[in-house]
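Supplementary Methods S3. Complex input for the zinc ion-bound model.
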Amino acid sequence: MGGPATHALAVAGPRITAVGQLPELTERFPRSEVVDLGEAVIVPGFNDAHIHLAMTTDDLLHVDLAASRVTVVTEAQLRIGDEAARTPAGQWIQGTHYDDSKMMDGRVLNRWELDEATSEHPVHVMHVAGHWGVVNSAALVLAGINEESEDPPGGAFGRDASGNLNGIVYERALAKVGSVIPPHDPEDRLRALAQAVETFHAAGLTSIGEAYAEPADVELFREGIERDLLTLRLNVLVGHDHYDAVRASRAFEGGDPLRLRFDGVKAFVDGAIGGRTCLLTQPFEGTTDDYGIQTTSTADLAAIVRQAHENGDRVGIHANGDQAIAILLDQLEAAQRALPRSNLRHRIEHCTIVNDELLQRIQRVGAISVPFGSYVHYYGEKLLEWYGPQRVGRMFAHRSFLERGIPVLGSSDYPCGPYQPLLALQSCVTRRGYDGVAVGENQRITPYEALSLYTVAPAEASGEGHLKGRLLPGYLADFVVLGDDPLTVPPDQIGSIPVLATYVGGRRIWPDRGVLSALGGSGSM
Ligand SMILES: [Zn+2]
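Predicted complex, serialized as C-alpha cells:
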C-alpha cells in the first residue's frame, strides 16, 4: 500500500507474481491470458476481523425478522405463524435479526404475542445483537424455566410489571434455552454455509475472523473446505467453553492454514451496545441506575485469560462498556506481569467505549482493538439517545486508536451490524447514521485509513501481513474489483460503490467462478 497506482497484476496460481503497467507485464508474460477490467478499480480483498459465519449459517435456516422485513409486532407474529403452518407440531421455530429499536410500535415482543402466533411449537426469537431473545410459553416449559426460577449468574429472565415471566431471556440465561434446541441437520447447514459464503464474497470479503466457533462449527468449516463450498479464508476464535476440547482433538491440524486457522479463545465480559446491556461506569442515558451487565465473573475471566496466555494462545475477549474494558485490562496486565510475552497481542473485541486512561493501558499492554465499523451507520441517532452526545465521541474510537498507534481492525460483527465493508468504510469516514445524524464526528478517519482497517490491519494482527492485505508480488491473489474508487468518491457514496467481482487465490469466486492468469485495470493500492 502507499505506492503508485497499479495498473495491472500478473497472477500465477494463488499468488501475485508482478504488478506494474499492462504493456510491461504482457511483455514479461507473453503467453498469459489478459483480462481487461476497463475503468474498474482493484483493491485488496476485504478482511473482516470479527464476523459470525457459523451464526449466519444457522440464521439462514431461521425466520428472518430483520427490520427490513418486519416493522410491527403483528408482522413478526404473521411470519412466525406462516412458518408454524409449514412445521410439524412440537418442532422448534426460531426467529432471527429481530430489532426492537427499529419497530414502529415502539415496544418489545413478549411471550403471549408469540403464543398467539403458535401454541403448538416452542418459539425462540433472537435479538439482532445476540445478547437477548424472546421465547413463548411452550419454550419456557421445555427449558425448565418457571415463575419460581431464579436468574442464573450473568443472566436474567425478563418479567412484566406484575412480576410474571414475559419471555425475554437475557445474556447467560439464553444458554438455558439454547441447550434444549436440537442442532440442525449437517447437510442443511452445509447448504446454508454455501449461501452465507456467497453473500460475503458478493460484498468483496475474501478473509474473515470467525468470532465464535464450537467444535461442530470447526467440523462444518472443514467439510465446507473439503467440498469447496467454503472459499473464504478463516481465522477462528473458539468459545472458551470449547477450548480444551479443540486442543485435545487437534481440530485445526492437518488442513491448509491459509484457509482455516485457530486464532484464539473467545470469551465475554459484558453485554451489547445495541442490546443496551454493556457494562458502564456511568449509567445509560435517561436512567440513574442502569449500568449494564457483567456476563462473566472476574474470577472466571482471570482463569480464562491465564490459561490461554500460559499456553501462548491469544484471547479475543468481548468488552464493550468502559467498565468492562477496565476489568479486562486488569486481567491482561496481570497475565503479562506474571509471564511476559511481548509477542502475544491479545484482542479486545469491540472495545467500544474508551477514555484516555483506558487508551493508555491498551497501548501499554500491547492489545489489539476490534471496534464496530458500521454501527454509526446502522444505529444513527439511537446511539445519542442511549449513550449521550459526550459519550458517543469516545465510542468506536477509530481516530483515537490510530493516533495512539494501537492496532485497530475493521469488524462488522454481522449479524449484529451490516456486513458490507464498503458501507463500514463510509460509516467510519463520515460518522453519519443511515438517518443522516452525525455521531461523534471527532472520531472520523480518512478513506485510506478506513480501507486499511479492512485490509492491512487484520492481516498484520493475525500474523499474515506478509501474505494478505496488499497487492504486491508474493502476496496471495485475493482482491476485489470495484465500480469506483473508495479513496476518491464523495465519502457518503462509498457504501454504494458496486462490487463487480471477487477473487481468492487467483480464482474468480464471485459472481461466477473462473481461473485467472493476468489482469489489466486500474488499482489504487
Ligand atoms: Zn461478535
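Residues 50, 52, 211, 413 surround zinc ion (CB under 6 Å). Confidence is low (pLDDT under 50) at residues 515-525.
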